[in-house]
Amino acid sequence: MAELLNLEKKLAEYKCDTNKAIRLKLVRFVEDLEDETMSFSPLYSHQVFGDEESVFGYKDLEIQLYYSTCSLTTFFNIKYSSKVVEKYDNVEVDNVESKLLEFIPAGYCINLDEFIVQLEKDASFRPFGFLIHSYTVYDEKEGLELNYEIYKTDISCPGFREYHERLQTFLIWFIETASFIDVDDDKWQFFLVFEKYLEDGLPRFATVGYMTVYNFYAYPDKMRPRIGQMLVLPPFQGEGHGAQLLETVQKFYTRDPAVLDITAEEPSEDFVKLRDFVLAKLCQELQAFVPEKLKKGFSAEMIEDARRTWKINKKAVTLLCIKFNELRCYGSDQTPAKYFKHHSRRVYEILRLRVTNMSDPVQSSEYRLDVKRRLAIPFKKNKKEATRLSRLMPEDWLAQQAEMSVSQEQEYLEETYQTTLEQYRRILERLARV
């Protein structure tokens, strides 16, 4: 028994958390290679290393994935202090390199000297496509304004295919359900964000983030762009680039008369919050959303004005969840877009909160009831569907009804209302700073 425990303890030393072992870095200057403060770790690694996000066989494992900040030329290296060489029953050493190379495109560097030579070539790198927006961000730490540009391109642009192969590798580390797209489908469009800076008096362009959009056909002669993927690289997060990118894309497609509306594919909770902010910012200037009209409640005028002016999608998919625990799992704040019949409705609620005196009992009560009526829509739809199903499965219907009590429904609505209210307040705080 003692020998078995010692063996288990020894083997445990060779099991590594891949989220900690992977060290990502965007390299702008040669000296950045030695600066450990510039490294960052992935949020996820399950798509490469399995659900446990771990590998066996190495002690002090470090997986170095460095990218030149402009062209994203890649340096790949694996370091460890020791490796399991003995064979144990049913225990095999993971082949880290082979797992990673399924996701890292060809052309990477395996030694630093080679990478440094490639790094110098970033001086000639230029963004792909054409410029559609530029903006500045004040860097309080450096005490200066930094310049950023957004470009629109497609896969036909020379050199972009190879660049995109390197760029999309970040998705697997930072988007939980990410997948690589079929870039040969010419309906995919790409929007790229770069920081424009000077080195030796010449402009350089550091990769900040990007968005993919698929142009779906809409009968009879329209187009419905759908946002597929969006990522701002970690060193640039929290600086407002996501909002700049989303607003720029919204405005870009709004100018096209062939566009019916703009949608998003399975938006994450963070993306929905970002879209709330951007759409509220855009709609706050519309005549349909003036304070006097907001106080009267949600209206068809708001739907039409938002759709006509900013191509905001009118309807979203509605999920039917019968059980209470399913509603808690798929509730409106977990998958918001799927529960809002109108995206403009959520914008209305945000802007109405701004003109509502929540210290006034009457105004506060009116606002709370208005929002809760929208939050209760899934319950009404579920009950209607369940009533229909009960004709076929009466026993199942009775069991489902037993799981959903009035008090549980009220508890859920109140909890969701408070969460929604807090989210709206944060959005309004951000709007006040614009």
Would you write up a description of this structure?
The chain has helices at 2-12, 18-21, 46-49, 96-100, 112-120, 160-167, 169-174, 241-254, 269-283, 291-294, 300-310, 324-329, 343-354, 361-375, 377-390, 394-403, 406-433; strands spanning 15-17, 22-27, 54-56, 58-59, 62-68, 74-79, 82-83, 130-139, 144-153, 188-199, 202-218, 222-232, 263-264. The chain starts with a helix and ends with a helix. 41% of the residues lie in helices and 21% in strands. The chain has a 6-stranded mixed β-sheet. Strands 2-5-6 form a 3-stranded mixed β-sheet. It is α+β, with helices and mostly antiparallel strands and 434 residues long. It has 17 helices and 13 strands. Strand 8 and strand 9 (144-153) form a beta hairpin. The chain is globular. Mean pLDDT is 88; it is low at 316-341.
Percent range for β-strand residues: 15-25%
SSE pattern, N- to C-terminal: HEHEHEEEEEHHEEHHEEEHEHHHHHHHHH
Strand order in the sheet with the most strands? 8-9-10-11-12-13
Number of helices: 17
Helix content: 40-55%
Q: Could you give a short account of the major beta sheet?
A: 6 strands, mixed
- What is the CA-based Rg, rounded? 26 Å
Spans of at least 5 consecutive residues whose pLDDT stays below 50 are 316-341
Mean pLDDT across the residues is: 88
In terms of quaternary structure, what is this? single chain
Question: Could you give the distance between the termini?
Answer: 66 Å
Number of strands: 13
Shape: globular
Computed structural class: alpha+beta
